[in-house]
């Protein structure tokens, strides 16, 4: 299994252009630019909440609008009228709900001293999960890409790609997948970011729910499913 993991990481390191084509920017381990070119941890959090059930290209347009209005900072959003924010993020699905949730989140984070203070808390994941609109995948994404805490977000792409890649049958249980992958992978910030970004990319471009493009997939030589298809 270790040999397969090492081979995966080797393949993923060569996928820079493909990662960038779908909005991931591999740079140094602690940079926020991994996450769609985000310039700050605040931008990672904001877009992580806005991108739920919304296309990334729409969220990028909205982020640029927020930047122009200096609304790309949680401290500023905390003091913003949710109705005004909903107008600014027009194009995002469920924008009124998301605007309200984002303002509440910003207020709560600002009250404890910002994301820097949050990162130092021992209950950071519980804090995030207690915020309205933040589920497990969003919480883990914020921890990994905004707070630089090595934790593996589990998406539907993660489950599908690793199920086929390793022949796993772990079902749909988020925590079971998280425990398995974190026990399998080197606990390293860069590696976690690289693997998450690469798996999302492969899931979007090749490992489709039906009629996967195995013959074009970078993992075709190490994937049990692809090899089984001949």
From TrEMBL:
Keyword 4Fe-4S: yes
SUPFAM superfamilies: DNA-glycosylase
GO molecular function term, any single one: 4 iron, 4 sulfur cluster binding
GO annotation, biological process: base-excision repair
Domain annotation HhH-GPD: ranges: 50-205
Cofactor: [4Fe-4S] cluster
Identification of the protein by name: HhH-GPD family protein
Organism lineage: Archaea, Thermoproteota, Thermoprotei, Thermoproteales, Thermoproteaceae
């Amino acid at each position: 299994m270790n040999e397969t993991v090492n081979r995966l990481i080797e393949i993923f390191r060569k996928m820079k252009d493909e990662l960038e084509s779908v909005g991931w920017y591999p740079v140094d381990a602690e940079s926020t630019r991994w996450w769609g070119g985000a310039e700050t941890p605040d931008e990672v959090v904001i877009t992580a909440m806005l991108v739920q059930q919304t296309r990334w290209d729409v969220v990028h347009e909205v982020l640029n609008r927020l930047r122009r209005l200096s609304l790309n900072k949680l401290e500023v959003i905390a003091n913003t009228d949710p109705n005004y924010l909903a107008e600014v993020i027009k194009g995002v699905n469920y924008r009124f709900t998301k605007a309200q949730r984002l303002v509440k989140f910003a207020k709560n984070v600002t009250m404890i001293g910002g994301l820097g203070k949050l990162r130092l808390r021992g209950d950071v994941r519980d804090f995030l999960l207690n915020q309205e609109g933040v589920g497990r995948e969003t919480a883990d994404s914020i921890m990994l890409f905004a707070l630089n805490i090595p934790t593996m977000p589990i998406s539907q792409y993660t489950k599908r790609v690793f199920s086929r890649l390793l022949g796993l049958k772990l079902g749909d249980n988020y925590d079971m997948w998280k425990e398995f992958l974190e026990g399998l992978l080197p606990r390293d910030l860069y590696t976690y970011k690289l693997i998450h970004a690469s798996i999302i990319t492969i899931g979007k471009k090749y490992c489709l729910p039906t009629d996967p493009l195995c013959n074009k997939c970078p993992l075709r030589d190490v994937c049990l499913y692809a090899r089984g298809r001949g």
